[in-house]
Description:
6 strands; elongated
Amino acid sequence: MNLKRLGNLRRLGFAGMAAVMCAAPAALAHHSFAMFDAGKLVTLEGTVKQFQWTNPHAWIILMVNEPEGQPPAQWAIEMNGPTGLARDGWLPKTLTPGMQVKVVIHPLRDGNKGGQYLAVTLPDGTLMGNPQGRGNAAPVRGE
């Protein structure tokens, strides 16, 4: 092997290492789903306030009626990213403000008004997602 070719291989190796090092922070920044209680299913009925078709996760902001005399509560529902949602038939305009929907979620463990999207029933009865959840969750340490 001549020295010129060896030098090219070294540069290629360094470029590959640099690419991996640049991608590592993004991979490490992605959070786990431990904040959601995968052992519980909650069904919410409400009005879409906003549908955020954004990376890395899309969001449904849903206004849910509270007991009489109280204003509706705002729930933040985290979804997959747009690419995964598109594979499942979602479009950026699948949900629009004012739309009445039923949403099934794994709620937040801390009791705040939010959760992980499992399924949405649209006003015309179309079901998007899996309302049964993703199977039995592994037990959480300490519970």
